[in-house]
Amino acid sequence: MAIDRTPVLKRCRSLDMDPVYLGVNKKSNRKLVRSSRKISEYGLQLREKQKAKFIYGVLEKPFRNYYATAERMKGLTGPNLMVLLESRLDNVVFRLGFAASRKEARQLVTHGHFTINGKKADIPSMEVKAGDVIAVKAKSQSSPKFKEIKEMSITVPSWMTVDVDKLEGKVVAMPRREDIDTPIAEHLIVELYSK
Fold this sequence. Notes:
Elements: H1 8-15, H2 41-56, H3 60-72, H4 77-86, H5 89-95, H6 102-110, E1 114-116, E2 119-121, E3 133-136, H7 144-150, E4 160-163, E5 168-171, H8 186-193
Antiparallel strand pairs: 1-2, 1-3, 3-5, 4-5
Helix pairs in contact: 2-8, 3-4, 4-8, 5-6
């Protein structure tokens, strides 16, 4: 399995985005030195694709597969792609507030701390559907990480509900593009792939 070990703040600076979208509450003290050259249309499209891949932690081949799936779905390809990325299990765990970042959520899922509808779920790319209940395993609830979460107040998007005392969340409905707050211009990704 390939792992992206790029320094987060350096990558955020190069993609001209805020690290908060990754769950990182740091700011870089370095100034970004921009060249005076204008970025081409292809450069803008490529940057948006790289931004989406970096935010969701997806490598090139799976991202291309998500795009192909989004293209086959009914409706617009761009919003369909964003919904597919948002409905990954590691992202849902992050959105439910069970992890501080998507990378941490991916690690917790891989280590087998979560269940979907009572069944073991240890694949971060699993697609979560409307009505699914994501819960922390009973064995894992005693760990300090999840005890800390029980004491926190968590806000979740409108398409999910969370019960902090039971450490479980439910996907009420699939997200719409309006519900997704990541700063990605998905129409540029569609333009890039449709060439």
